[in-house]
Design goal:
alpha+beta, Rossmann fold, Tumour Suppressor Smad4, 4-stranded parallel sheet
Amino acid sequence: MVRQRSADVRQDGDLLTARRHFVIFNPASGRGSGRRRIDQYRELLTQALEHVTYASTTRPGEEAELTEQAVEQGYDVIVAVGGDGTWSNVADRLVTSGRDDVALGILPSGTGNDFGRNFGYSLRDPQSAVRVLAEGHVRSVDVGRVDTLSASEHQPDRWEPRHFLNLIGFGFDIAVIDAAKRARFLRGEALYKVAALQQLFRFPGLHARVEPEAHEPLELHHLMLTISNGRYFGGGFPIAPGASVDDGYLHACSIGDASGLTRMKLFSLAEKGRHTGSDHVTITGDTAFRLQFPEKPRFEMDGDLRTSETEVVKVRSMPGALKILAPAS
């Protein structure tokens, strides 16, 4: 539906426009709970915004195709309603398009919603998230880029470089996602935390060599290895407490393998962002990383699983590469 009322022309940040919004719903987000939020968000958006068009995905990854169509049709803001995976798919297409006059809007409706936490978004407060879109403040944020070709579990034959918004993760992170997919009765933050506790005593660890561009390399048997653009992961864990989405850096968090009881302690500390003081934890901020594994790794990118084409994964920061609607503060 396109609403035809007039809108004021105004300038916010670098974006000058009588804004036309293209809203993409992912009904499958939040393990299907996203479908139940569509009507609520549509009502709020219709009241708050001018010139709105709505679309819904029907299969995994369709956000990318809808984004490309919306950009070609001249929309000024692409609003992604879902979780980290939905937002990431839209952001990747916006960055790839090379257009700096189109902004991303995000509305939480997913399982983790970790990237949104960097801006104070909460699944429990959809009104505030829509208000941010209506206020229209534009902010430039960094994105990460995996230059190594990889393929998603949904499109295993499509090998491509990819941009990410929040984080890529190896090792324990993958085990938790696999376990969460098998869970039947939990959702949201509780789902990730219960799956993580389960895998603390099951996951065998992962060997990897981490080579930051401007720091000494690190090679060991990891419990988990993450490369973060944002601060949070796993439904609210501040895995990289010092990270900011506009500092120009990625933050590698390496947690060395340990006994089950030590893993539990690290898990408890990480929930509060206090794991950084442990001898098992190394956090390095840098602009690029080269990661070497014994075999082609699986990894998660903003909650979606991918497989690398090679044993080496190269990742780097792209400072200020994405325009996003965010709170003015």
